[in-house]
Amino acid sequence: MEEAIIRILTEELNYKPETAGKTCRDLMDIQDPEIREALHTWVQTREMTPVSAEGYDAVSLTKRLRYPSALLAIEMLRTEPARAKQLLKGFR
């Protein structure tokens, strides 16, 4: 799945290769089963699953972030809610 993610990030979302590599590693490190399933669905179909945490959902966050980053934000909201809320201040 790593190769597919890097290809999508670089070819479809125009990430720079080094940013794509880091983002891919971060995505692959996600342990939450719901977020991992959402990532897998997105890689296969580009369908965005509205996984949520702390009043935010990944699809709504795509107004300001790309979907992979939105998934990382949701994961952070689930694991480090105070820090994530500070970083996402004004994203609603």
Main attributes?
92 residues, mainly alpha, 6 helices, 65% helix
Q: Overview of this structure, please?
A:
With 92 residues, this protein is mainly alpha-helical. Helix content is 65%, strand content 4%. The chain contains six helices and two strands, in the order H-H-H-E-E-H-H-H. The chain has helices at residues 2-12, 17-28, 33-45, 58-61, 67-79, 81-87; strands spanning 52-53, 56-57. It has a two-stranded antiparallel sheet with strand order 1-2. Strand 1 (52-53) and strand 2 (56-57) form a beta hairpin. The chain is globular, with a radius of gyration of 12 Å.
Q: How is this structure best summarized?
A:
With 92 residues, the protein is mainly alpha-helical. It has 6 helices and 2 strands, in the order αααββααα. The protein has one domain (2-87).
Taken in chain order, the helices and strands follow as HHHEEHHH
What is the averaged pLDDT score? 94
The largest beta-sheet arranges its strands as 1-2
How large is the count of helical segments?
Answer: 6
Strand content: under 5%
Whole-number total of structural domains: 1
- Described by its quaternary structure, the protein is single chain
Reported for the largest beta sheet, the result is: 2 strands, antiparallel
